[in-house]
């Protein structure tokens, strides 16, 4: 009996295109929008070598160590591949190469052997800000180091004879070391996708709402008929809710697959656990939908969508301000933040991405399961009715 | 009425706030009966049925099905009851066959047995050619038949039909009524509600007329007709009677009204044993020649209107 009812409920959901559209299409459409929005952002932070013509004139010959510096940042295989260098004899020749589009800009040195970078307007737009900043930093650091060496030469010329001092100036040793405190490199955009999956779970709650409405005698004629079943009520309710959960989970999994494998959003290589989190997420949304399915009024889907939108705001979906507010609520009112399932879903993915330990992830999943249990209990109390004062 | 009672409603009271929808109603339905429940809008028919089915809680009284007290969790009793609601209540997204199977599964777990029952139900209502169709692709009559198949597939011993022929064409209506009679012949006890008096008269072995939540009359169609003062309608094809003859007819104690139009004298009678001979005697005595004479006995509709009144009823 339960299998037949599960099948009937599942078929009635999957054959309702208007019902399935948003739970299925929403994460795909919005993630595409995010992808377009964030592609510029990611590009800006990606280091691309700047192709430059270097004017090798008399000033260039006077610039001590500049040639070595350029060689060190013109290596294809190096992490700090900042410039693609080609040499020219004069500024005019360099400008011609820029106009012809052979290079993005040129480097020339003034009479004091200070280098300056000249870029075409097109290159200024097309290159990411990270690339431009790095290129300028290389030239600035050359000026700074040379200045330090000149100061040192004035104070104690003998020091320059010490090979270890020179070695320290010429080496690429740095005083700070790059360390990653998170399991994966931070990416500003992923938080949006995680919150988006939370919102998608919220939108999926309408599936359970429909499934349960159609078991409730006070809501639909079909529900009245099914309330007359010759088997205990819980069998109809459990199988109907399970069907709604499966449909909701499948929609979320499709959205997740699109975000992960088509858009390439990182989940820290823990896709299996992410699917587990989606299971807990759809359990919460199905429980919430089930509660609204027990009301006689047909306005449940609008209310559910409104609640989902509000909770998504506090999960950080709507931009930096929304994320700051979400963090502030979590910091100052942790219980309130824990009660927001969309934030919990988002944070579960966040934990997978950034924490080595699975403890935070497990904590968020446990919170989701407790939420599902509470909502499910409320739904069960309301759903199990077989006799009504009014119909 | 047959020996064993299938439905027993004792002193049932159902109130909605200050409105008493069912007012100390008592009725008994025996095995094998086709029991008609008649009443104007808002008379309490559907409320009574919902109370029998335990869908509605009630304020007072008791309902027994198959000799046992019915409760909302009497699942073994529910398995013996089938319901065909007034509204076509099926899954719009499932095919005809999937629908019948889904509803049959609410009562029958065994898949093999269910397959056989579904086949039989589909054959019974004659929708085998449409079993892969979804309800939205069916005509109104076919949807009604699907609605019936969903209610009877598990072979219930008691079947409740709540106005099953609303908005169907005469052919489908006839098929539905014949089907109900067949189910009854095969052993099912039927409760049938309808606003169509001729249907009730055609298929019901016993009728209860409800008004204001109470049973105001109960019995067979003939018994009900005999309870009221309305007699037959007599139509006499005759030459034009003079005014005095017409007055003489009207003055007969058995005549409620008499008019002449287009060669026909139309007389509405009160209940009586010699109405036709009395009227024809007046015509003969006054030299009015007459030809064809038709006598229409009172209908259930006449009885219904006389019992429940002719004023319009609207449900709240």
Automatic annotation (TrEMBL), chain A:
Q: What subcellular locations does the record give?
A: Cell membrane
Residue ranges of domain ABC-2 type transporter transmembrane in the record: 18-380
Entry protein name: ABC-2 type transport system permease protein
Instruction: Tell me how this protein sits in the membrane.
Output: Multi-pass membrane protein
- Keywords (A to Z) from UniProt: Cell membrane, Membrane, Transmembrane, Transmembrane helix
The record's annotation in InterPro entries points to:
ABC-2_transporter_component (IPR051449), ABC2_TM (IPR013525)
- For whether the record's keyword set contains Cell membrane, the answer is yes
> Which residue ranges does UniProt annotate as crossing the membrane?
20-41, 192-212, 242-263, 275-296, 302-321, 361-381
- Major location category of this protein: membrane
Which GO molecular function annotations are given, in alphabetical order?
A: ABC-type transporter activity
The organism named in the record is Parafannyhessea umbonata
Q: Does the keyword Transmembrane helix apply?
A: yes
From TrEMBL, chain B:
Q: Which GO terms describe its molecular function?
A: ATP binding; ATP hydrolysis activity
By its UniProt entry, which InterPro entries does this protein fall under?
AAA+_ATPase, ABC_transporter-like_ATP-bd, P-loop_NTPase
* Record flagged with keyword ATP-binding: yes
Q: Which PROSITE patterns match?
A: ABC_TRANSPORTER_2
What keywords appear on the UniProt entry?
A: ATP-binding, Nucleotide-binding
Q: Which top-level group of life is the source organism from? A: Bacteria
ABC transporter domain boundaries: 7-237
What's the protein name?
ABC-2 type transport system ATP-binding protein
Recorded source organism is: Parafannyhessea umbonata
Its taxonomic path starts at:
Bacteria, Bacillati, Actinomycetota, Coriobacteriia, Coriobacteriales
């Amino acid at each position: 009996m339960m299998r037949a009812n599960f099948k009937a409920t599942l078929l009635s959901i999957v054959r309702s295109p208007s019902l399935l559209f948003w739970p299925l299409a929403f994460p795909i459409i919005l993630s595409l929008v995010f992808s377009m929005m964030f592609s510029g952002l990611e590009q800006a932070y990606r280091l691309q070598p700047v192709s430059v013509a270097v004017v090798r004139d008399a000033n260039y010959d006077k610039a001590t160590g500049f040639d070595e510096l350029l060689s060190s940042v013109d290596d294809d295989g190096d992490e700090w591949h900042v410039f693609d260098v080609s040499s020219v004899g004069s500024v005019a020749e360099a400008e011609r190469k820029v106009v012809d589009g052979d290079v993005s800009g040129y480097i020339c040195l003034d009479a004091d052997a200070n280098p300056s970078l000249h870029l075409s307007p097109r290159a200024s737009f097309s290159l990411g800000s990270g690339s431009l900043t790095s290129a300028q930093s290389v030239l600035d650091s050359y000026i700074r180091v040379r200045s330090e060496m000149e100061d040192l030469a004035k104070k104690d010329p003998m020091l320059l004879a010490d090979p270890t001092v020179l070695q320290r100036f010429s080496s690429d040793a740095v005083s700070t070391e790059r360390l990653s405190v998170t399991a994966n490199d931070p990416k500003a955009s992923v938080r949006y996708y995680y919150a988006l999956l939370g919102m998608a779970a919220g939108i999926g709650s309408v599936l359970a709402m429909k499934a349960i409405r159609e078991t409730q005698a006070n809501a639909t004629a079909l529900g009245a008929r099914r309330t007359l079943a010759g088997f205990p009520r819980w069998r109809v309710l459990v199988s109907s809710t399970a069907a709604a959960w499966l449909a909701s989970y499948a929609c979320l999994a499709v959205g997740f697959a699109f975000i992960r494998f088509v858009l390439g959003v990182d989940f820290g290589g823990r896709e299996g656990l992410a699917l587990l989190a989606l299971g807990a997420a759809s359990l919460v949304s199905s429980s919430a939908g089930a509660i609204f399915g027990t009301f006689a009024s047909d306005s449940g889907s609008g209310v559910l969508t409104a609640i989902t939108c509000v909770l998504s705001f506090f999960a950080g979906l709507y931009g930096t301000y929304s994320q700051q507010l979400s963090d502030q609520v979590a910091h100052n009112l942790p219980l309130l933040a824990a009660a927001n399932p969309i934030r919990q879903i988002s944070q579960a993915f966040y934990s997978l991405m950034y924490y080595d330990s699975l403890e935070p992830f497990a904590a968020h999943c446990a919170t989701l399961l407790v939420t599902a249990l509470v909502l499910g209990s409320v739904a069960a109390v309301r759903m199990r009715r077989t006799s009504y004062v009014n119909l | 009425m047959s020996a064993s009672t299938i439905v027993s409603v004792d002193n049932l009271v159902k109130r909605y706030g200050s409105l008493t929808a069912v007012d100390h109603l008592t009725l008994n339905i025996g095995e094998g009966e086709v029991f008609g429940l008649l009443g104007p809008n808002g008379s309490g028919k559907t409320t009574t049925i919902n109370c029998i089915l335990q869908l509605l809680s009630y304020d007072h009284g008791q309902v027994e099905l198959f000799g046992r007290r019915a409760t909302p969790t009497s699942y073994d009793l529910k398995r013996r009851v089938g319901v065909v609601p007034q509204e076509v209540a099926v899954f719009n997204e499932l095919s005809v066959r999937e629908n019948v199977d889904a509803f049959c599964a609410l009562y029958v777990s065994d898949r093999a047995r269910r397959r056989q029952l579904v086949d039989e139900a589909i054959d019974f209502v004659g929708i085998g050619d449409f079993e892969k169709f979804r309800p939205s692709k069916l005509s109104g009559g076919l949807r009604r038949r699907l609605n019936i198949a969903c209610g009877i597939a598990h072979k219930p011993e008691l079947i409740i039909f709540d106005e099953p022929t609303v908005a169907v064409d005469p052919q489908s209506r006839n098929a539905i009524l014949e089907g109900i009679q067949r189910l009854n012949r095969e052993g099912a006890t039927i409760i049938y509600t309808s606003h169509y008096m001729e249907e009730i008269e055609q298929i019901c072995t016993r009728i209860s007329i409800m008004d204001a939540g109470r049973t105001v009359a109960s019995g067979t169609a003939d018994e009900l007709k005999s309870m009221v003062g309305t007699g037959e309608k007599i139509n006499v094809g005759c030459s034009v009677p003079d005014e005095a003859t017409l007055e003489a007819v009207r003055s007969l104690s058995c005549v409620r009204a008499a008019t002449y139009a287009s060669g026909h004298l139309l007389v509405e009678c009160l209940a009586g044993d010699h109405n036709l001979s009395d009227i024809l005697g007046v015509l003969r005595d006054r030299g009015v020649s007459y030809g064809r004479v038709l006598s229409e006995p009172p209908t259930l509709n006449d009885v219904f209107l006389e019992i429940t009144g002719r004023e319009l009823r609207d449900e709240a």
